[in-house]
Amino acid sequence: MIDALPVVLNINGLKYEFEVLPYRSLLDVLRDELGLTGTKECCAVGECGACTVHFDGRSINACLMLAIEADGGSVTTIEGIAPPGEMTRVQDAFLEHGAVQCGFCIPGMVMSAEYLLARNPHPTEEETREGLSGNLCRCGGYNRMLQAISSVSEESTP
Amino acid sequence: MTASQIGSSTRRFGGYERVTGSQEFVADLRLDGMLFVKLVSIDCARARIVSVDTSAARGLAGVVAVVTSDDLPQPVPRFGPVYKDRPILAVGETKYHGEPVAAVVAESKEVAEVAASLVAIQFEELPAVFTVASALNPLSPLVQEPELRSAGTLASTNVLSEQVFGWGDLGATEADLVIENDYCFPMVTHFAIEPHGCMVVSSSGGFEVWSPVQHPYLLQAILADLFDLPLTRVRVVAPDPGGAFGGKQNPKFEPLLCFLARMTNRPVRLILTLEESFQATRRTSAEIHIRSGFSRDGLLCFQDIESNFLLGAYADIAGRVVSKSNYLGCGPYRTPVAKIRARALLSHTTPSCAFRGFGTPQVAWALESQMDAAARHLGIDGLQIRLMNLAAKGEDVVPGDVPADGEWAQSVQKAASAVGWGEPLEPNHGRGIAVGIKSGATTGLSYSTIRLLFDGSVTIYAGTSDMGQGARTIFAQIVSDELGVPIEQIDVVMGDTSVVPFDLQTSASRSTVFMGNAILDACRDIQLQVRELAAELHGTALENVRIVAGGVFISEVKVSIPEVVQASLGRLRGELIGNGTMRRTDIANHPLGGRPAFFEFNCTAFEVGVDVETGEVSVIKHVSVGDTGKSLNPLQVEMQDEGAAIMGLGHTMMEHVILDESGRIANLGALDYRIPTSKDLPLSLSTYSIENADGPGPYGSKGVSEGAILCTAPAFASAVTEATGVVIRNLPLTPERVWRAIRDGASDSSTVEQV
């Protein structure tokens, strides 16, 4: 029997100490053990982006990182980007521009959009397309997402 | 008085939950003490199951049960929305790649996965049917045992059903130009980002089922039938689907989970992987042979169509896909003479089911490509040949049935002007235009209950599934206007058969029309009650009380609806309950069981640029125009239309399920099966609505969520032809296929008779 290993993670500003089986992904831990189900699971092979979170300042697919690899790191999930009851400008713009249909891809998409704008507050359309290209939306909301991100970019001071 | 909601882009109900991740999809729900299910299948399509050794799996710590068909009631129960043909688990042989042979139930999903890999299945691969040609060949093996089929001459063939539609005398019809071709539309998969899944609790003699199903009441009926339970003992809770597109209409593994819940007496949960979802459902592929006759000046003389649609191993709802789409196989045109022979063929492949467009993208691919072939041969413009044949409002499409219900030429003109039809083009650029119509729902019924609470707030109960189309928002907008209630004081309850009244289904772009009308009817019920109360309060006759734009007028005095309710009900409080219905019943002998409630009409146009060195096609402009009747929420209409357009680009440019010689899906999963990403989005995508308030839904609306997928492929291919001179009749138009066609100089190869 494989033993669980201790892991310390900072998630959305809170410190979590727990033991985890070494084969469990960061996504499994977030969803199944910590109840942070805002991060979604679709392909589990790093292709769809539904599980996008920020890890130590990078945007990653939580399905591709083992929880034990994340030990000592800092994770921001969709639950951690705005206080309860509030939205970031990206989230608000997604709704304003009609970028949200079924909503399953949206948490991951928002995390990718936030990451893009954090690094590049005024992306070109080409850069925005590239920034979202790791996130699949089968409802086909991309056009509206580009508009939403563009509107947020225009609001911010150059 | 609130501003009118109808026609405004009210923000999406449930939007906040979706952008913050707090929307709970089925996989986000947890049941106390739940067990995890993993399906076990074999690595080929059709095989005789020689033996299943579950001992190693059963011996693993944490495994609660390993179930095969031997552990189920005998004969193993079968189910389906039309035919009861699908067994709970494979019996004796597997019939498609991924059909579950066993199910493991364990304390964790990891244990279930490991145990599933320990189930040892000995099997012997058998000859199988994977193509239309093979399905039609009388020497091929039968997919379904004749004794399980309904009696008739087709029972000992692989033809599930064959229908002939038509009018006029084809033999006596002459044409100046006859064009004959074959078209292929491949298998594609729904690829909802939310994989399929469900959870079941067995309790008090019945079941509670959580499933993101499009038709909760159909699932309830099927489970009640399977287990011989009263409907009240099957509660279906339907969390909002994370995308469905037709793939989540009908039960898949819910019946199995019910058995497992009963056997283990614990809650059970099955969440499929994306790969398993690929193996659960797909679009019906098609091969269409079509002869089209035209006069010298481009008028249609006849259509002679033979459609072979390849279903999977079990029928699901795909027979209906074939009949409904082929019934309108001649499209939105005046067609003097028509014969359409449509077959639904069984094969050893993934069971196909509904998929956005419900067969129409397949038939429109052939039909509209024929219109372009005729235009080229006659030297007529692709726009003109469509305009000259398009049925005007009130003219027959299918003689004797519902005539054209919209000013369709307006959509075509709008699309043409938006794409810049006729303007000069750069080298290797081309434009294409195409049209499509799909029948809306025919028969059906929807009920709604509305509670106007004492403080004036409202709860709407509707059995619709809000799967991305934004049905809650539309329903709330209707009630806001009809009852004068601010939108933020309205709650919409859906997705629980123990709470909401019956709704037949969420499909066929029907909910705005069917449930919308039921809600409007329920509002009228409440309005009448309010008028009665107001008349009583003011000591006047009912006819002196009017309700206009949600306000109550007693002669010239205006009060609000809540004021009337509060004054009337007084100290004891209370509420008003309104009920509403929309019901369209069967029509005897109608080929579809009933007439289309409306047509969904779309015109799509493209400008593309082709890199002739690589075959890569850049979409410069993609225009979609829908005949919406009335856009109740314009932003939601645009979102839906763009979504259908992008999904259409998928099957046009890149998507196809590839089978190997054993019927395995070779491109199983997101790595090898491409769907459009943000980088595939056209450089310009625009969508427009034609609104003449001529639909049967509230305020003249029609259903809209499928239009832009109907004729994406032929419009795109026509643009590629103009850009390159090559004509391609197989989808998708991948760079490789376009490049090969250019290399081979694949010009129009139509068989042409010219008189």
Count every beta strand of chain A, where a strand is a DSSP E run of 2 or more residues.
5
CATH class of the largest domain in chain B: Alpha Beta
CATH class of the largest domain in chain A: Alpha Beta
| CATH domain topology of the largest domain in chain A | Ubiquitin-like (UB roll)
Counted by DSSP, the helix tally of chain A is 5
Structural class of chain B: alpha+beta
Q: What overall geometry of chain B do the principal axes of the alpha carbons give?
A: globular
Radius of gyration of chain B: 27 Å
Helix content of chain B: 25-40%
What gyration radius of chain A follows from the Cα positions, in whole Å? Answer: 16 Å
Which strands sit side by side, in order, in the main sheet of chain A?
A: 2-1-5-3-4
Q: How many helices of chain B?
A: 18
Would you mind describing this structure in some detail?
The complex is a heterodimer of chains A (158) and B (755). Chain A contains five helices and five strands, in the order E-E-H-E-E-E-H-H-H-H. With 158 residues, chain A is an alpha+beta fold. Chain A has two domains: 5-79, Beta-grasp domain (Ubiquitin-like (UB roll)), CATH 3.10.20; 89-155, [2Fe-2S]-binding domain (DNA polymerase, domain 1), CATH 1.10.150.120. A five-stranded mixed sheet of chain A has the order 2-1-5-3-4, with helices on one face. In chain A, helix 2 packs across helix 5. The mean pLDDT of chain A is 96. Chain B is of the alpha+beta class. Chain B folds into three domains: 33-126, Aldehyde oxidase/xanthine dehydrogenase, a/b hammerhead (Aldehyde Oxidoreductase, domain 3), CATH 3.90.1170.50; 282-441 and 591-754, Aldehyde oxidase/xanthine dehydrogenase, molybdopterin binding domain (Aldehyde Oxidoreductase, domain 4, 2-Layer Sandwich), CATH 3.30.365.10; 442-584, 2-Layer Sandwich (Aldehyde Oxidoreductase, domain 4). Helix content of chain B is 26%, strand content 26%. Chain B has a seven-stranded mixed sheet with strand order 3-7-1-14-11-12-13. The radius of gyration of chain B is 27 Å and the shape is globular. Classes of the chains: A alpha+beta (158), B alpha+beta (755). At the A-B interface, helix 2, helix 3, helix 4 and helix 5 of A face helix 1 and helix 15 of B.
